[in-house]
Design goal:
single chain, alpha+beta
Length: about 140
């Protein structure tokens, strides 16, 4: 395969995780369109989620108009899925635009340190004999 064909059909697959959500992003050459679970980002139902997912695209500016991104996300809640999509998109963009790698990594890290590395926090497991992880029975005899 010639060098021209390799660069013409460049496709990058990246992943992002947050709590129990897992997002897979496919970045390829295009016109700046983004789909989340086959729904275009412009008509995604929740506005806050839309803004969180679009953060990496806004940060890189005109480079975002050169790629199409398809994201599949499963598990967790709405905001957890949004953060997982954000991480997957940011990682995919850094990998796709490898000639601007250092600059993109610097931009993303300055904005949010978890944009590329993910957020390691998890929920604390529930303990036996209690209602939740920390809550205990009330005492009324003090």
């Amino acid at each position: 395969m010639s060098q021209e064909l390799k660069t013409k059909y460049k496709i990058v697959i990246s992943t992002g995780k947050r709590k129990t959500s897992v997002a897979r992003a496919i970045v390829k050459q295009g016109e700046g369109r983004v789909w989340i679970n086959s729904i275009p980002l412009e008509i995604y139902p929740i506005e806050m989620v839309r803004e969180k997912i679009a953060e990496p695209l806004v940060l890189i500016g005109n480079l975002a108009k050169q790629v199409d991104i398809k994201v599949n996300v499963r598990g967790g809640g709405v905001m957890s899925q949004a953060y997982a999509c954000r991480v997957a998109i940011a990682r995919g963009l850094v990998e796709y635009f490898s000639e601007h790698r250092e600059e993109l990594m610097r931009i993303f890290k300055e904005y949010d340190k978890h944009m590329l590395s993910g957020d390691p926090r998890q929920t604390e497991p529930k303990k036996w004999g209690r209602y939740s992880a920390r809550r205990r029975w009330q005492k009324s005899y003090r």
